[in-house]
Amino acid sequence: MASDYAEERRIAELAIQRASLLTQTVLLARDKGSLNKEDNSLVTIADFGAQALIISAIRHNFPQDIFIGEEDAKALRSDKQLQQRVWELVSSTHLDDKESEEMLGTVNSREEMLEVIDLGSSTSSQKGRVWVLDPVDGTKDFVRGAQYAVCLALLEKGIQKVGVLGCPNLNTDATNIFDGPPKTPGPGIIISAVSGYGATTRP
């Protein structure tokens, strides 16, 4: 039986898939555009780019929903070179399946990208429908090529209804788990769940 949140789950999976592709592009780059935020935590261009893609995809399909994200666009507004790098990532990252890509919509300009990132500045998750995201969970591990996750959840009146995790570096065939870059990077997996309907995984 289909859940009441089947559409949200599908869009969230596709959004996480596309954002994960962006993070993998950054992972291959020598310079990951890292900087320290005011709270001394690490952020990279992958964090900014993934947040832009996730929020834009959700907003395209559910325009009344609000967001709680990890980042804001303050650093990008003050650093045009960094802003350009993020824009190049956001504007060039697409799903291979044209129909799926069209479902997510696109970010059409640098200014729209900055505005979308800033939409993640909400602070309350107790009212209405709120999407909570961590574009790169484990940024320090991401920078060194270890395991990290791209995370998204839908809360309704403070109760979690949908959750999706992208694990781009995870190799499900690995026989050992260790803290460090995988010796044999896997194709990665996406794990998703709807409250009361169990969880599924897919490449």
UniProtKB/TrEMBL annotation:
Keywords: Hydrolase, Magnesium, Metal-binding. InterPro entries: Inositol_monoP_metal-BS, Inositol_monoP_superfamily, Inositol_monophosphatase-like. It holds the Pfam family Inositol_P. Mg(2+) binds at residues 70, 134, 137. It comes from the Eukaryota. Its cofactor is Mg(2+). Gene3D superfamilies: Fructose-1,6-Bisphosphatase, subunit A, domain 1. The keyword Acyltransferase does not apply. GO terms for biological process: sulfate assimilation. One of its GO terms (molecular function) is 3'(2'),5'-bisphosphate nucleotidase activity. Belongs to the inositol monophosphatase superfamily. This is 3'(2'),5'-bisphosphate nucleotidase.
